Amino acid sequence: MADNPFLQRRHSLLARMGSGVAVIPTAPEHVRNRDTTFLYRADSYFHYLTGFPEPEAVLVLVAGEHAQSILFCRDKDIEKEIWDGFRHGPVGAQECFGFDAAFSIKEFDTKLAELLADQPSLWYSIGHDAAWDVRIAAGLNAVRAQARAGKRAPAVIHDVRAALDDMRLGKDAHEIALMRKAAAIAGAAHRRAMRFTTPGKNECEVEAEFLHEFRRQGSQAPSYSPIVASGANACVLHYVDNNRMLREGELLLIDAGCEVDGYASDITRTFPVNGRFSGPQADVYDLVFNAQVAAVAAIKPEASFLDPHTAAVRVLAQGMIDMELLEGSLDAVIETESYKRFYMHRTSHWLGLDVHDAGEYRHGGDWRKLVPGMTLTVEPGCYIRPAEDVPEAFWNIGVRIEDDALVTADGCEILTADTPKTIADIEYLMKK
Ligand code: GLY
Ligand code: MN
Ligand code: MN
């Protein structure tokens, strides 16, 4: 059990708490329509601490001298298991997942009041799930009702997600291994899409190549709705219709990643539908490529979270001036943020269990410093919509290049490096 990463994380949270009781419920099932639910996914915080995959479960951690981790989960139910599949039940869950104790979820409300009595603090994240907020408040009130019997309810409530966010920012070896796998599968899917793409196919056919590759390699699901955006659609940042025919002479921007045991990859590649970049397409592509090179070089310990973005913006802004998309000096373009007309998003976000992962971006007023073990995306782009003051050769060109970086002792490792990215590599793969 010593090498069980979930157990280690529970111990680490217990140590941070020092005292008190933490309550961390998993996600509810969500109805898709009538009696059909969406594919179930556990809550990321709950998964991080348990690895327990079933809905209707909650983790309770009791910190202090007699620290305990307790799971409440569904009972075994042979009739339901015939229809919906295996349930561990409390006894099986305790054994399999290394909890100190496990009980039926039906006992949670009564036991919560017992567990909270005479504890100094409750660690719970209010406001994320109204139904759980009501249950937790009822638990607190049940203890308060026993005041005359000498019981005291916790006087302090901490946001347990804040403590967990901090832990989740630095990935352990188990997490990094899963992120490598998610990156490798998504990379294979991008290569597959490059080989598959020709004029006349539909965006949805290319999307299908991704879904096929993700599942056949064991990913449970895409880590977000894939963006398969040809031509002008590439300038719609969250385009997900994916239903247009690919045309000769256009670019195809694909932002697609997958999830492996809860961990996300997030990759964007942009390539020509016919396998060869035109002059203006190559100009914009090289600009974004160079911006990404500058951003990657800025990812190292002690750099701030914003440094890669600042580096990318400098390159992009200068390129926009050189290509006559913008007027003015580099400093003026950066100062007035006029570059935002063509580059309106940030260069990075944390990546992990959530595609836009947990963790503060600023701490004590300053941008967070990068530390080995953090994982973030590097995703500069340039999106040029038609307009009178824009050279027509660039109209409807939208390019983004996105990779996933792991901060290392002396810089960073690109987890998604085997996805072709230079013009030469992309054209070579598409020719084959
Ligand atoms: N695919 C979402 C993002 O790149 O942030
Ligand atoms: Mn991203
Ligand atoms: Mn993305």
How would the global form be characterised?
elongated
CATH-level-4 superfamily name of the largest domain: Creatinase/methionine aminopeptidase superfamily
Strand order of the largest sheet: 6-5-4-1-7-8
Largest sheet data: 6 strands, mixed
**CATH fold-level assignment of the largest domain:** Creatine Amidinohydrolase
CATH architecture of the largest domain: Alpha-Beta Complex
In DSSP terms (H or I, runs of 4 or more residues), the helix count works out at 13
Helical residue percent? Answer: 25-40%
- The assigned structural class equals alpha+beta
CATH class of the largest domain: Alpha Beta
Point out poorly predicted stretches: none
Bound molecules: glycine, manganese (II) ion
Task: Estimate the strand proportion.
Answer: 15-25%
Overall average residue pLDDT: 97
User: How many strands appear in the DSSP assignment?
Assistant: 21
Q: From the alpha carbons, calculate the radius of gyration and give it in angstroms.
A: 25 Å
Overall structural domain count: 2
Describe the structure.
With 432 residues, the chain is α+β, with helices and mostly antiparallel strands. It folds into two domains: 5-167, Creatine Amidinohydrolase, Chain A, domain 1; 170-431, Creatinase/methionine aminopeptidase superfamily (Creatine Amidinohydrolase), CATH 3.90.230.10. Helix content is 37%, strand content 19%. It has a six-stranded mixed sheet, with helices on both faces. It has a three-stranded antiparallel sheet with strand order 9-12-13. A three-stranded antiparallel sheet has the order 10-11-14. Glycine binds at residues 224, 255, 266, 349, 355, 379, 402.
